[in-house]
Amino acid sequence: KNELLSIPAAAFVASHICEGLDYAHNKADPSGKALNFIHRDVSPQNILMSFEGAVKITDFGIAKAEDRASKTQAGVLKGKFGYMSPEQVRGLEIDRRSDIFAVGILLYEMTTGQRLFVGESDFSTLERVRNATVIPPAQINAQISPELEKVMLKALARERDERYSSASELGDDLQKFLIEDNTIYTTKRLAALMRQEYASSIEDERRRMESYLQLSRPASRPEHPVATMSRSQVSRSARFDDEGVEETTIFEAASAADAITVKQATAEPAKVKQSTPRPSPRSNESATPTTPVKIS
Predict the structure, then answer these.
(1) Contacts of 63 by beta carbon, 8 Å cutoff, 6+ apart
(2) What's the rounded Cα separation, in Å, for the pair 296 and 294?
(3) How high is the pLDDT of residue 275?
(4) Do 248 and 283 contact (CB within 8 A), yes or no?
(5) pLDDT of residue 68
(6) Distances 69 to 35, 64, 65, 66, 221 between C-alpha atoms, Å
(7) Which segment of 112-121, 215-224, 237-246, 254-263 scores lowest on mean pLDDT?
(8) Residue pair 106/47 in contact by the 8 Å Cβ criterion
């Protein structure tokens, strides 16, 4: 749909993107040492919103940790050109403020409905990013307040020292804007918006699930009824295992009468009779009296 996201919704989404980035930027290893992650590709394709109103950042495939073994070769650009920072395009060392610049681009485009840095070619797009010339968003959308415009322009500052120092700082200013604007925007409201905008997709998914549940299930094995035998059909053979517990075996005879269930044929534990152990042949030999031989 060619409709703009409402100003409160855009600010709310951007603030939650900042929460995710702040978590990544401050992630530490098991020893407590900061990893200093930088996403480097914060773009619309890597932002997901669920039907429950959750905002998530995905695809950390080109994320960079400060002390990782492999380093990016000088002059190699990673990420989508239209969402890079000026220092990233110039091939300079980047930090978390490069991701903050990308969040500013996303917020700008969500509230104006126009691409911020786009050219006729990749080269012209990179030139626009490097120069970081930004048309004030209120000139495109008059509903953008001076307070929100100030936040966006600070995030989009060409010099990174003039930007927000952390994603949480940008997120806090966006939350302050929502409060001062007397706008209470919550995850529940975003979920309702998602369900409204994607009602047909949700309905299609529901139908697919219903059709899946109606598929014929594999035939299960029938439960075997309890077998019955007559008293004349049943004989029992008992033996004892190593622990002296009686084991009963059921045998089937030729005729059938007075049927009883197998369960009734289970024998009670039998008592083991103690028997006198047989002497071994060697012990018998030792017990046989011998006649002494007298040697003269």
Answers:
(1) 24, 37, 38, 39, 40, 41
(2) 6
(3) 52
(4) no
(5) 45
(6) 12, 10, 9, 9, 57
(7) 254-263
(8) yes
Tell me which residues are annotated as active site.
Answer: 41
Closest CA to 170 of 1, 25, 30: 25
- Residue 223: pLDDT band (50, 70, 90) is low
Tokens encoding 251: 């045998």
CA pair distance 139, 147, nearest whole angstrom = 14
- CA Rg, the chain, in Å? 40
Give the pLDDT confidence score for residue 286 in this predicted structure. Answer: 47
The CA-CA-CA angle for residues 115, 176, 167, to 5°, reads 60
Average pLDDT over residues 90-100: 94
What pLDDT, in 10s, does the model give residues 53-89? 999 999 876 655 554 433 444 444 545 899 999 999 9
> What 3 state SS string does the chain have?
CCCCCCHHHHHHHHHHHHHHHHHHHCCECCCCCECCCECCCCCHHHEEECCCCCEEECCCCCCECCCCCCCCCCCCCCCCHHHCCHHHHCCCCCCHHHHHHHHHHHHHHHHHCCCCCCCCCHHHHHHHHHHCCCCCHHHCCCCCCHHHHHHHHHHCCCCHHHCCCCHHHHHHHHHHHHHHCCCCCCHHHHHHHHHHHCHHHHHHHHHHHHHHHCCCCCCCCCCCCCCEEEHHHEEEEEEECCCCCEEEEEEECCCCCCEEEHHHHCCCCCCCCCCCCCCCHHHHHHHCCCCCCCCC
Residue whose token pair is 């952390």? 166
Give residue 214's pLDDT band: very low, low, confident or very high (50, 70, 90): confident
Name the nearest CA neighbour of 42 among 138, 132, 155, 140.
155
